[in-house]
Fold this sequence. Notes:
With 218 residues, the chain is an alpha/beta fold. It has helices at 30-37, 63-70, 86-91, 101-114, 130-141, 160-176, 188-191, and strands spanning 22-27, 51-52, 55-56, 71-74, 148-152, 180-185, 196-201, 204-209. A hairpin with a 2-residue loop joins strand 2 and strand 3 (55-56).
Amino acid sequence: MARYTLYGVWIFKSGKASLSRSLAQVGAARQLCCKCSANSTSRPPTAGTLKYRGKSLLDLPDPAAYRAHEIGFIFQAFHLLPTFTAIENVQIPMFENHQSRAARKTRALELLKAVGLEQRVNHFPAKLSGGERQRVAIARSLANSPSVLLADEPTGNLDSESAKHILDLITSLHFDRRMTRILVTHDMSVASRASRAIQMKDGQVVFDGDPAKLPRHE
């Protein structure tokens, strides 16, 4: 398995008063970049800085709280608990907030309605299609109203039609909820949905700019 060291620095700003940026990361070491953004690497960086809203992520007293409240995760493999229904899966991140059972259920139902699954709230993952499972995962990622949405190959396990619907949904949420969106992908068609693309090779940034200008071949 290849191991990568990251070189280079990028900065993207977002605020509640302005529309957040949409960033796509393409190429080798992109998952490591995603982990750095979430402050979930197994070992801290050997050099450089990692900041969120001016604060060093490496010095946070409770990194888990930062991930729970500021970061929403969408995974390629969905990562839904098979013995939990859709509405129960969406509630999982809310346990960090010590909400009442009624409040969690109400919030989960609102989110499932937002992703078009109000008729499937009591279905288990095995009874849902791939696209529906990813919609549940998206609803779960929004449970604690995060400011940053990290999507790691969100369409990798979907057919082309379902993939388009999921990307449309993520794009809509990005604009409607004014969230920073980070898409990790190797698919150029997915990267083209972003307002900025960063391409990496062997741990180094080889492109940073307009997705329309991304090189299509090595």
